[in-house]
Design a protein that fits this description.
The structure holds 2 protein chains of 2 kinds.
Chain A (H helix, E strand, L loop, with lengths): L1 H7 L1 H14 L13 H7 L8 E5 L7 H17 L2 E5 L6 H12 L4 E4 L5 H10 L4 E5 L4 H4 L4 E6 L1 H21 L9 E6 L4 H17 L4 E6 L6 H13 L4 E4 L5 H9 L3 E4 L11 E7 L2 H13 L6 E4 L6 E3 L10 H14 L21 E2 L11 E2 L1 E2 L2 E2 L17 E3 L5
Parallel strand pairs in A: 1-2, 1-3, 3-4, 4-5, 5-11, 6-7, 6-8, 7-17, 8-9, 9-10
Antiparallel strand pairs in A: 10-12, 13-14, 15-16
Helix pairs in contact in A: 1-2, 4-12, 5-6, 8-9, 8-13, 10-11
Chain B lengths: L7 E5 L5 H27 L3 H13 L2 H26 L7 H19 L5 H30 L3 H23 L29 H20 L1 H11 L1 H6 L4 H28 L10 H11 L4 H25 L3 H23 E5 L2 H6 L1
Antiparallel strand pairs in B: 1-2
Helix pairs in contact in B: 1-13, 2-3, 2-12, 3-7, 3-8, 3-10, 3-11, 3-12, 4-5, 4-6, 4-10, 4-11, 5-6, 5-10, 7-8, 8-10, 11-12, 12-13
Classes of the chains: A alpha/beta, B mainly alpha.
């Protein structure tokens, strides 16, 4: 795609170049990939000085998803004082393998890729460079590949989604109390990417959080078939709003849904980071995975010569699951409700996927075989319901909750 | 009062000797680099020489980088070569993207459906045939309509791209792993069934060898074969072609089948040899970039090596400068745009020259 644009806008590029010259605004040019050699000496950790980290990102800083990783990478590497390199705009193809190998050739001994589709190519690179540690966010295969140097990582983001859901539920209650809507009209809209477990787990936990405070809440979900498609996300949100959804959330990486909500004046629960600056009137709260703790953990493992977990799942306690500060549009008492639920989750008193809080086709879920070990036939292989709750992200770090629960209405499942 | 002569005239040149036309192009590239350098300094404050160095390092910095550059060059060259006979015939085949995709889809389908049924020595020839046939078929459809009913091939080849993209999108959902994820991932990662063989122990060499062979064959085909002659006659004037007894319809269909077949071959290399997966962005716009490569080289297969090299070189450099300086990829695209602008612009100075008003004579008086 990039190349097509390239060949079509030859002339335009010239103009852009000139405009950039006139504007003289080039603060992007800050050398954030530069090394941080002087701080290594103050650390006193001799072994950290030997670590060089390579990061592979699907897009660049214009994607909220990648920006979240880039900020964490910078923060962790500067904190530990290790040298690092980044490669941006690496597609989910052989380019990822090449990028990983190039980073290994350049002396990196810990290499991380941020996009789901990078996984297979990271595995190929891991086979070729057994002495280099490779980690991959959101992947599913580390526990079955049996490679000592390939690892997956994710976080219990369903906890964060649940807490964000509470903010949504409180807002719905406020709207009901104000008489803006009736209790039956408390319908949430959700813009998803694919009908993939990570998305299903995300919207279900969000919904359960909302319903825990607003029992009449229901939810419509639409899918865009892309992790990043601003137009489709915007249209999806608009369609949901027209269909009577009074609050929107999303699992997709552009500003499409939040801006649609701001225009329509519909409250929005965001993801990957706060969208308050762009949507001051409708932003409620955002959950995100903070990758900094994982990077710190993995880099320290490499420095100390320790093995990195094949599957690492960050939690609220590790600081991996975060909620942004609340927007000005939230209902009164939201912070208290969130804090209360958060304390219960951390103490183990509350489980997000408590099977007594939802039904599937009218029945309580007492047993479920999930497809934890990835294969082409989607063979279910692990019993994941026990002790009254669905054990999400325990048998591998990436989510595998893919049950359609009652109260959530899927509008289209083409993707 | 003297009749005021304009400051300069534009005069058509005689054909320039090759060394002069190469000289004009070299000057254009140098000027483009100087302009890029000035812009780089103004907008980013980075030493442009360092930027050029790192662009070069991005393409040739290590042995692996060199191989990747050559491999990418080969694929773009193959696609440009595929489009060339059609363009030379003035058949605007902008369907390279779709022809590559459909060839890749055919190869991917063989790998997924037959991977555990056939051994590699049987499977790979099946894949080769399937990809080439699929690409050829995708080229045949618009050619047939053009030959039969004189439909507009620009529109039909373009629309065939979308059909191919949607077919790939459909099969991505059918074959996705894990469920719902919208991606197929590496096909037969553990069995390597249907992976094209590495030659001389290098995973990069196969595409390069194929591209070299196709370049030479295409050069011979276009310049020394009867078919090639027929293509140029049809391209110059369909009526002349008809007059001398060339069956224009037959030439159109035959040439487009060839064009599509080579695109299908590029799709095979991309799926079977390089990516080992199939996605809608497999061709990555190269079906369109190939048009540019082919035109810049004036349809000469040997010159195309240089024009595709230029584009790949800048593309590889783009990644490196974003790593080295934290500059966005778009920055390298701007530089590439400027260089292409100068190269295309300099063609004007190869065909025409500016004749300035003779000041000197007047001043003597």
């Amino acid at each position: 795609m990039k190349k097509r644009v390239l060949s079509l806008i030859t002339v335009l590029a010239m103009t852009v170049g000139m405009l950039a010259g006139c504007g003289g605004s080039s603060d992007k040019a800050s050398a954030d990939t530069k090394t941080d050699a002087e701080s290594t000496t103050t650390e006193g950790e001799a072994s950290l000085a030997d670590v060089k980290v390579g990061f592979i990102f699907l897009h660049d800083e214009n994607s909220t998803y990648d920006l979240n990783f880039m900020n964490a990478a910078k923060e962790a590497c500067e904190k530990l004082g290790v040298e690092y390199m980044t490669k941006t705009n690496i597609p989910e193809g052989q380019e990822c393998y090449e990028a990983a190998c190039e980073l290994a050739d350049a002396g990196c001994n810990f290499i991380f890729a941020d996009s789901f589709g990078h996984e297979d190519y990271m595995i190929e690179a891991a086979k070729e460079y057994p002495e280099v540690q490779f980690s991959h966010a959101t992947g599913t295969k580390a526990h079955t590949e049996n490679l000592d140097n390939f690892h997956n990582a994710f976080a219990s983001i369903y906890d964060g989604r649940y807490l964000a859901g509470i903010a949504a539920g409180m807002k719905l209650n406020e709207m009901i109390d104000n008489g803006d809507i009736t209790a039956e009209q408390a319908k949430i809209g959700y813009v998803g990417a694919f009908t993939y477990a990570e998305v299903i787990s995300g919207y279900t936990s969000f919904f359960l959080g909302a319903r825990s405070v607003c029992p009449t809440a229901t939810m419509d979900v639409t899918f865009t078939g892309s992790w990043y498609d601003e137009t489709a996300e915007k249209e999806g949100a608009n369609k949901l709003i027209q269909d009577g959804c009074v609050l929107i959330s999303q699992h997709a990486d552009s500003m499409g849904a939040p801006t649609a909500c701001e225009t329509a004046g519909v409250p929005n629960v965001s993801y990957n980071g706060s969208t308050e600056s762009a949507c001051p009137n409708t932003f409620l709260v955002s959950s995100r995975v903070n990758w900094e703790p994982y990077f710190e953990y993995a880099i320290n493992c490499v420095a100390n010569g320790e093995a990195i977990d094949a599957d690492w799942t960050g939690t609220l306690a590790t600081g991996s699951v975060e909620l942004s500060t609340l927007g000005s549009a939230v209902a009164e008492g939201t912070q208290e409700a969130i804090d209360e639920a958060k304390a219960k989750i951390e103490s183990g008193e509350l489980h997000v996927f408590d099977t007594s809080t939802f039904t599937v086709e009218g029945q309580e879920l007492t047993s479920y075989q999930a497809d934890v070990d990835t294969d082409a036939d989607y063979t279910p292989d692990h019993e994941v319901v026990s002790d009254g709750y669905f054990h999400e992200s325990e048998y591998r770090s990436a989510p595998y909750f893919n049950v359609n629960i009652d109260g959530i209405n899927l509008l289209d499942t083409a993707f | 009062m003297n009749k005021k002569e304009p400051f300069f005239h534009i005069v058509k040149r005689d054909a320039l000797p090759w060394y002069q036309s190469v000289g004009v192009r070299a000057i254009a590239i140098v000027l483009a680099l100087v302009l890029c350098g000035i812009l780089t300094t103004i907008t980013t404050g980075i030493d442009p020489i360092e930027v050029y160095k790192s662009i070069f390092a991005g393409a040739f910095g290590t042995e692996r980088k060199t191989w990747i550059t050559l491999q990418n060059l080969s694929i773009l060259l193959l696609i440009a070569l595929a489009l060339t006979p059609a363009f030379k015939m003035k058949f605007w085949n902008i369907g390279g993207e779709g022809q590559v995709l459909i060839g890749g889809l055919a190869a991917g389908a063989c790998m997924i459906c037959l991977g555990d049924k056939l051994p590699n020595p049987v499977l790979i020839p099946v894949m080769v045939l399937a990809s080439i046939a699929a690409g050829a078929f995708w080229g045949f459809i618009p050619a047939f309509f053009k030959a039969k009913w004189n439909t507009n091939e620009t529109l039909s080849t373009l629309m065939m791209n979308y059909i191919a993209t949607q077919l790939v999108a459909f099969y991505t959902i059918v074959w996705e792993v894990p469920k719902g994820s919208g991606k197929i991932g590496i096909i037969n990662q553990n069995s390597n069934a249907g992976w094209l063989p590495q030659i001389f122990g290098s995973k990069y060499l196969l595409s390069i060898v194929v591209a070299v062979v196709v370049t030479l064959l295409m050069y011979i085909y276009l310049n020394y074969s009867k078919h090639g002659y027929e293509i140029s006659v049809v391209g110059e004037s369909e009526n002349t072609a008809k007059y001398v007894g060339i069956k224009v319809e037959k030439v159109i269909v035959r040439t487009m089948i060839l064009s599509g077949a080579i695109c299908g071959l590029a799709g095979l290399l991309l799926v079977g040899g390089i990516n080992h997966t199939i996605t809608t962005t497999l061709a990555g716009g190269q079906g369109f970039t190939g048009v540019l490569v082919s035109w810049m080289a004036k349809f000469n297969p040997l010159t195309m090596v240089f024009s595709s090299f230029l584009i790949i070189f800048m593309d590889r450099g783009a990644g490196e400068i974003s790593t080295a300086f934290g500059l966005n990829h778009s920055y390298a695209d701007i530089l590439t745009g400027i260089i292409l602008f100068f190269i295309i612009g300099c063609e004007f100075f190869i065909s025409y020259k500016l004749q300035f008003r003779k000041k000197a004579e007047k001043e003597v008086q």
